[in-house]
Each structure stands twice: as C-alpha cells, then as structure tokens.
Write a structure and sequence with these properties.
Pfam families: ASCH. This protein is an alpha+beta fold. Helix content is 35%, strand content 25%.
C-alpha cells in the first residue's frame, strides 16, 4: 500500500488529521523494525540530534502522525508521536531501550547497536560520535491498522 492510500484510509477514521504526510523508514533493517512496530513490540526510536541541526530540520512533534515504511517504501502502519525528548547518548534509559523493542531489549544491546549506527551516520557527514552526543528520543503508538 502506498503512503497516500494508507493515509486516506486512516483519514476516514480520524478526519481531523492534516493532509500533509510524513512517511519514513528506519535506517537499518527497515522491514524488521517496521514489523516490530506493526506487532506493537516497538514503541520508540532514536535518531542523531546533530543530523536535524545539520539539515535544519525541525524535531518530531508530539501529537503528529507518521507513516512507517518498509524497505520498498510501502506503508506498513501509522503511528502517533506521544513523546519527544533530547538527551545525551550515555543518559538513555533502560526503559527507552526496552521500548525500542530490538534484540534482547536491554540497554547494553541498545547502546552497542546504536553506537555503531550513530558513529556511521555522523561519520558520513564529517561529524564524530561521542557518548555525550545528543539523541532525539521518540515514543509513539500505532494507530492504524489496529
């Protein structure tokens, strides 16, 4: 299903949503992570704050809706952003790591995977990752399909 098709279906249920669509795929293993969101096992994500600043892009906003895409840019589901915060990487909590739903859901696993990911992402644009690097933490709930 295309992003527009899933948005149109959800708009029939929630006509108050905006017409503007924000659709994105996870940076690594988009299919697996989208499936975890669809199953309700993944209710959070993290991204590099410096990339928002570098691209002069606004941070995600609570109360907005996003379409989660798979690796083929097909719509998997729609989520509502319920919480956004910015913290240094080394202060991310075990609770947040669990909500991300990946691997064994531990903070140790989360830090290992995300340190590698952020090091690569920031390195591609000439920036250096450190434990003090800021991360954007998002929590969300799947709203469609139910």
């Amino acid at each position: 299903m295309t992003p527009q098709e899933i948005w149109n279906k959800y708009k029939q249920i929630n006509p108050s949503i905006e017409d503007e669509i924000d659709a994105w795929a996870f940076g690594v293993d988009a299919d697996l992570l989208a499936d975890l969101v669809l199953k309700g096992e993944k209710t959070a994500t993290a991204s590099a704050y410096d990339l928002y600043a570098l691209e002069d892009e606004p941070l995600p906003q609570e109360g907005t809706f996003d379409i989660i895409l798979d690796s083929q840019n097909q719509a998997v589901c729609i989520v509502e952003i319920t919480r956004v915060s910015v913290q240094p990487f080394h202060q991310v909590s075990a609770d947040h790591a669990y909500k991300e739903g990946e691997g064994d859901k531990t903070l140790v696993y989360w830090r290992q995977v995300h340190e590698d990911f952020f090091t690569d992402c920031l390195g591609e644009v000439g920036l250096t990752f450190t434990p003090e690097s800021k991360v954007v933490l998002e929590e969300f709930r799947k709203v469609y399909p139910l």
